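Hypothesis: this fold can be encoded by more than one sequence.
Test: take the structure tokens below, design a sequence, compare later.
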């Protein structure tokens, strides 16, 4: 059911009673401004919202950095690549000052 703010104020107990059946929308000048829902629906919404929230990349990286710090790792050492030819490193012409 849809209510105006004035009607909802005057019949608040009825608005609350009807939330057991379905959410009650409250309007101001034909625009929705609020919805009154049952406790069960609100709890379900909070669970859904909590499950939906995913950490940002910066939060994940901050957590990883904290774990590494706690384990005594100051950083991650990446060994040099040896699996394929790198002309900037492996070709002596790039390092020859005369060419």
């Amino acid at each position: 059911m849809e209510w105006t703010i004035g009607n909802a104020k005057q019949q608040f107990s009825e608005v609350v009673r009807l939330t057991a059946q379905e959410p009650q929308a409250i309007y101001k000048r034909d625009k929705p401004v609020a919805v009154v829902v049952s406790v069960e629906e609100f709890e379900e919404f909070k669970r859904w919202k909590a499950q939906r929230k995913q950490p940002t990349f910066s939060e994940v990286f901050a957590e990883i950095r904290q774990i590494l710090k706690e384990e005594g790792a100051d950083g991650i050492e990446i060994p040099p690549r040896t699996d394929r030819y790198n002309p900037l490193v492996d070709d002596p012409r790039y390092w020859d000052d005369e060419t």
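The chain is about 45% helix and 15% strand. The first helix runs from residue 5 to 10.
Hypothesis status: open.
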